[in-house]
Amino acid sequence: MEVDGILVAAHELKAPLAVLRQLALSFDEMNSTGEHIRAEMVDVSERAIKQVNDLIKVKRLEDGLFVMEPVSVRAVCDDVMRELYYLFKHNRRDLFVKYSNRSKLVMANRELLHSVVYNFLLNAMHYSGEETRAELRVKDYHDTVRVTIRDYGPTLPMDVWKEMRRGWIEKPTSIAMRPGSSGLGLFIASKFSRYMNAEVGAVRHRDGTSFYVNLPISKQVSLFDL
Amino acid sequence: MIFVIDDDLVMAECVAKACGKKKVKVFSNAIEAMKAIADGEMPELIFLDILLIGPDGFTFLNELVSYTDTEKIPVVIVSSLDFKQRDLSVYGVVGILDKTTMLPEEILDYVEKYCEKK
Q: What is the CATH number of the domain that holds B82?
């Protein structure tokens, strides 16, 4: 699909999703089952809106509207985890997190980095089996900080892995071994990473896949170090 | 009275419902709303969508600020477009709500702030 086509489609999709969300919020007081359904409706529509917003951002990348600045990786990852915590819990997946990076700041755009981590983690939640876990690890890697998201689902197919090895995904492609996947999250993450001069890639495991993004370290002194 | 102007009537009804006990009038386009004002209905507060069928929200805002009797009517923009960085106070805009993230309580907050309690 042409990028302009994506933009039009994204705007068209946003309106009904916003209505759906607002309708769910407008329900009068309900019993606990009703409340649960209402919360689900709001969550689902908010996630869909987020993905639609990401598509709009893909178009805005061309205009260079996203400023690169020193960003705290940990703060971004914490934000994403807070957003996804209940979704993981609700779907009976654990989320394991480990920060071992010494360099606290990277050169990135906060909004785009948030989307990259969010998309990878959401992917990991979808493809990890019930009662298993997804892992988020942040560590120093040469002159970059590497954010790795590991899932315990089907291994990434060889052709997609090769495409990721090249450094970016040309277009969203359905991944047959990962049912229900349109590859949209990977496409978005790879587009945003490329914009931020970050390297994106994947490691195939026999019991899952690790997606990673290497972000250039910012030379600015971090307040965390003071 | 509050005016809600949105070509998406379901969204307009949601906004109207969030206004609580205040009397609300819903319009699907800017022309009808302007006609109502010209006929003497003076809203205390307006919730306005920007992308409308026919004249858009900014045309309506321009019209509103060009008359002495309507220039001070507080307007809250309700849109899924991103206006966060813009200062629209010259149009009498007192707030901006993003349709994709707004909560009913935020709508009610504006009602309580700008409408007389009766």
A: 3.40.50.2300
- Structurally, chain B folds into a number of domains equal to 1
Closest Cα in chain A, distance from residue B47 (Å): 15
Q: Could you tell me if B9 lies within 8 Å of chain A, comparing CB atoms? A: no
Map residue A108 onto helix, strand or coil. Answer: strand
Rounded to an integer, what distance in angstroms lies between the CA atom of residue A157 and that of residue A131? 24
Angle formed by the axes of helices B30-38 and B57-65, nearest 10°: 20
Least confident of A153-162, B1-10, B21-30, B54-63: A153-162
Nearest residue, CB atoms, A23 vs list B14, B80, B103: B14
* Single pTM value for the model: 0.72
How many A×B Cβ pairs under 8 Å? 36
B contact test, residue of A22, A44, A45 with most B CBs within 10 A? A22
Query: What ipTM describes this predicted complex?
Result: 0.76
Residue A7, Cα to own-chain centre: how many angstroms? 19
Output A6 or A192, whichever has higher pLDDT: A192
From chain A, the residues in CB contact with B100 under 8 A are 14, 17-18, 21, 46, 49, 53
Query: Of A134, A122, A9, which Cα lies nearest the Cα of A59?
Result: A9
Listed in sequence order, the residues at least 6 apart from A85 whose beta carbon sits closer than 8 Å to its beta carbon are A95
Asked if residues A26 and B104 have their Cβ atoms less than 8 Å apart, the reply is yes
Half-sphere exposure in the Cβ direction for A157 (13 Å, CA): 11
Angstrom distance (rounded) from CA A159 to CA A181: 15
